[in-house]
Design a protein that fits this description.
Elements: H1 5-12, E1 19-22, H2 25-33, H3 50-58, E2 62-65, H4 74-77, H5 82-100
Parallel strand pairs: 1-2
Length: about 110
């Protein structure tokens, strides 16, 4: 069975800290408020529940702004030209190396 994110936080607390990065200020405001007046008629927006994310933030997760050009997750969510794709791959690798330390591979 899959662990839900808040179950993961409870199991590894205080060892694990969840950081959520977003490149949209309006979305950050909606998540911090727990709702969006403009989106109140839609329970889920882009398959993401704003109230759920608000609960994560209230439970100790951090929501931070990141400039679009530095958002490593764009590689998973956007169609991009080959140069931008290569740049996004480098951002993602940098992020993994920063979070996990150097990665050693056996060949």
């Amino acid at each position: 069975s899959l662990l839900r994110v808040h179950d993961f936080i409870k199991i590894f607390e205080p060892k694990a800290v969840l950081y959520l990065y977003c490149d949209n200020q309006a979305t950050i405001s909606a998540v911090k408020a727990g709702y969006s007046a403009k989106l109140h008629h839609i329970r889920r927006t882009q398959k993401v529940n704003i109230a759920f994310l608000h609960g994560l933030i209230a439970g100790g997760a951090f929501l931070r702004y990141i400039a679009s050009g530095k958002n490593a997750s764009d590689i998973f969510t956007k169609i991009m030209a080959s140069l931008k794709f290569t740049e996004s791959q480098a951002l993602l690798l940098d992020h993994v190396l920063f979070c996990c330390g150097s990665v050693e591979t056996s060949r």
